[in-house]
Amino acid sequence: MLEAVNLSKSYNGVSALKGVSFKVNKGDIFCLLGANGAGKTTTINLFLNFISPTSGQALINQVDTAQQPLATKKMLAYIPENLMLYPNLTGVENLHYFSALAGRKYPSAELTNYLNEAGLQEVAHHQRVSTYSKGMRQKVGVAIALAKKADVLLLDEPTSGLDPKASNEFAALLKKLSELGVATLMATHDLFRAIETGTHIGIMKEGNLVESMTTDQINHQDLERLYLKHMN
Amino acid sequence: MFRLHVKYEWVSVWRDRWVVVLSLIFFGLLFFAIRNGQEKVLERQASIAKARGELRQAESKRRGEIDSVARGLRQYGEARRNPRLLSTYGQRMGKVVAMDAQPLAFVATGQSDLFTHFAKPKLYGEVYSLGFSELANPVQLLFGSFDLAFVCVYLLPLLVLAFSYNLLSSDKESGSLRLTLSQPVSLFSWLVAKLALRYAVVVGLIAATLLIVLAWHGIAMSTGLFWLLLLICVYVLFWFAVSFLVSLFGWSSGQNAIVLVSVWVVLVLLVPSIVSQLANAVYPVPSRINMIHNYRVAEADAEKRASEILTSYYRDHPELGQQDSTVANQYQFWLKYFASVDVLKKAVQPVLDEYDGALAQQQEWVDRFKVLSPAILFQDGLNDLAGTSTAHYTDFRHQVIEFNETWRNYFIPRMFANELLQASDLDQLPEPRYQSRVQPVWAIDLLLIVVFAAVVLGVSFRVYQTSSAERWLAS
After folding, report:
1. Cβ contact, residue pair A83, B175, below 8 Å
2. Domain range holding A88?
3. Residues of chain A with pLDDT under 70
4. Which candidate among A94, B33, B223, B420 keeps its CA 20 to 30 Å from the CA of B44?
5. Partner residue opposite A88 with nearest CB, options B11, B183, B473
6. pLDDT tier, B301 (very low <50, low <70, confident <90, very high otherwise)
């Protein structure tokens, strides 16, 4: 479970995030929408403890990420916009390395299972990651999330630049993770995907969370209208 | 966790073609450098052996002649051709005082290309020069030959920097650092593990190359080799520490490279060159021309007053007077010279002292300021291990001068007594026993480099503590 409590961040007196609060429960997929610079990535970075909040708290399973970053990082998986792995290592080796960093060690058969589960074609498992496409790297990222048994998934525009098929596969994986009880926070520009895969939607503007709703309350057209209203 | 980082760093390094190419280049450089060093050592040993061999031959020939003449079996014509004359023997058949190469001499050419490695004492001649061709001794901290020391002092840091400058920044630039730091790991231990692995690779590469190349050239292993490796390891550690510190500032790979190369230029090129130039400027070595001029003036003056000097010399040294005063001393010409040596010495002593003093002060200056750069410390340590430092050659020069005195002291009293050589006397001649009296300094150099590395690592730790992940992730 993931919770932002009055979360604020300012850089040299300029506010990037102004007291944002929300909660993502087990199995929920919370999609954050908003223009570039609205504070979506800042929010995610706060949960990763890449930056420290000016005030407020970012909690993962009730643990403050700023206070116990190593503990909270054990519980989360992160897929950035452009997920980069170690290019000289194979898919299996990358998975082994990153899951072992999180304290989970698997025999190679199990690692292969996770990669299969994430949809990475078997032939690529033992190829160097330098030969992978972005979609393939994202799949390794999902496999890491699976192998880590993460409770929380943080996604920063994961589908930008993916072709429609890869994007569709990725959405299916997210749903699968959500069924496993993972709480997902995803920053995205893709309204269609947000409605399709998300359970909740939040719209951010200039560091504020200006709208928050569940996806069954709204359809794609209404969401687009609402989004554009806030942007103008 | 540490082992995990190391393991995958190793796999990454191993698969990186750039690393393999660098290693091969470095292997080639070391191979060439050691070969060069060893060739110089062999030349040096050959020249000493040649001088010894020639002397041995000449000695046995002379022994035969002396014996024949003493027993009246052989005529020699003019009096000055008598092989039993002390003056001829003492002047021409001086023993070879040699400075044999130490086991690690191949490591650093040091001063060995400036000085000869053997000298023969003479009865007559300009005492101070004694075959030392180079008296205006430059404190040679700057460029020498292409030897192991050159490769290690100058090129090895560049290899280390090429190997480590973008360790953090490349991960940051590619984006994989974000994924790594989203795991429960500390950046510090992660980076230390990566550097430790690369450090081990570099050190392992050097050790392996050194052993292979030494075996190839048939150079014997010695305990000094262990200390040599230790010294190199510590120097490499220092450069890895510098790279570690610079990478913690979170700059781009390009900025890291510029900063690191600047540090290299300052520590390896600028500081040693400034220290050496200042040593020459503050304590200039007196000119050799000046010294020779003074000597010759004194010599000419002494020649003019030769008889007068000899008379007063006899007055001061009554013990040297001939027992049988009815016979003219056959060494008359020489005796005048010996009597004037004291006068000559007095005349040139100030110049000699000035020269020795300037050298000693230069050395002291360098010793004091060598702590400014690990590169000077390292070079100093290597020269010391190789036995080719300024101190070694100064010590050798002093020992040659001392033996020259011993040699003269054997002959001169006998010449005043108007004696002739017996074949049996040849076994009683003084033998040179050169043994280095230089206090080793490499251990101090090593310790000081360790201090340098420790300080840099300490500062690194401080920088790490006062930074947040923002510094390393910000693009």
Report:
1. yes
2. 2-231
3. none
4. B223
5. B11
6. confident
pLDDT tens track for A98-127: 999 988 999 999 999 999 998 899 999 999
pLDDT tens readout for residues A208-226 = 999 999 998 888 888 999 9
- Which positions in chain B touch A51 (Cβ < 8 Å)? 468-470
Looking at residue A67, its amino acid is Q
Number of domains in chain A: 1
Q: pLDDT-based confidence at B323, cuts 50/70/90?
A: low
Q: Do A128 and B8 touch (CB under 8 A)?
A: no
- Residues 6 or more apart whose CB falls under 8 angstroms from that of A74 comprise A102, A103, A148, B184
Residue A24: strand, helix, or coil: strand
Q: Which residues of B80-116 are buried (b: 16+ CB within 10 A; e: fewer)?
A: eebbbbbbbbbbebbbbbbbebbbbbbbbbbbbebbb
Under an 8 Å CB criterion, which residues of B touch A? 1, 4, 8, 11-12, 15-16, 174-176, 178-186, 468-470, 473
- ipTM over 0.95? The verdict is no
**B16 contacts in A (CB within 8 Å)?**
88
Q: Domain of A199: which CATH number?
A: 3.40.50.300
Find tokens 């890895």 and name the residue. B240
Greatest mean pLDDT range, A207-216, B112-121, B125-134, B313-322:
A207-216
A85 → chain B, closest CA residue: B176
